[in-house]
Design a protein that fits this description.
about 210 residues, 10 helices, mainly alpha
């Protein structure tokens, strides 16, 4: 995969491929968008090292890391918002589907409580969990949470996830080289973050405090 993505690093198409993968990931969580972002960042780091040594000019021959991060962030927020709006307008069929899913129902309850307290950090953490982004975005839309309650946290989640993923790929290549070892360490760090986030998201919501007599 590193070689395949590396072949695109000299073309703007790398940004389109990354953006499409990240947008669609909210609907098809099995897409390896995080792997793709890390691989693109790793290839960019490798290209920077090679081209700098040869000609001293790197700006036009490899993806810009900042542009890659902006692209991944924007695509993440766009995908979240599309899923949110679709769930908002989903109607009775979607409501019944969510009601049959304990995972989605629990996410709705936790997300609603968190957003009502102004603590949408759950949206940020869920962005790292496998399928957590889908669950939270659909849950927020189906529960008709306000845009101003959901979208800012979605944007923060996108920045955090994109920065973490791009940073892993780029720094992994800088420290360990653009080899299978550097890619493997970066992907392992992404997997560990996803596992911890999934454990947090699946944690039972705290019981509500009893009403005062």
């Amino acid at each position: 995969m590193l070689e395949s993505v590396g072949a695109l690093t000299g073309s703007p198409w790398i940004y389109a491929v990354v953006a499409l993968s990240v947008v669609l990931d909210v609907f098809v969580p099995v897409l390896p968008s995080g792997v793709l972002v890390i691989t693109a960042a790793t290839a960019a780091a490798a290209g920077t090292t090679t081209v700098a040594g040869a000609t001293g000019q790197v700006a036009h021959q490899v993806p810009d890391i900042l542009a890659l991060m902006v692209c991944a962030t924007a695509a993440s927020v766009l995908g979240d918002f599309v899923a949110y709006r679709l769930a908002w307008r989903g109607g009775e069929r979607l409501d019944r589907a969510i009601a049959r899913s304990h995972r989605l129902t629990t996410a709705q309850e936790r997300l609603g409580a968190a957003l009502s307290r102004g603590g949408g950090i759950l949206v940020v953490i869920a962005r790292f969990a496998p399928a957590g982004r889908s669950v939270v975005s659909l849950g927020a839309g189906a529960a008709h949470r306000k845009v101003k309650e959901f979208l800012p946290w979605s944007a923060l989640a996108g920045v955090a996830w994109a920065g973490y993923s791009v940073g892993l790929g780029y720094l992994g290549a800088q420290w360990l080289g653009a080899s299978w070892l550097g890619a493997a360490v970066s992907l392992l760090a992404l997997f560990v973050a996803g596992t911890l986030a999934a454990l947090f998201v699946r944690r039972p919501a705290p019981a509500p405090a009893p009403a005062a007599p």
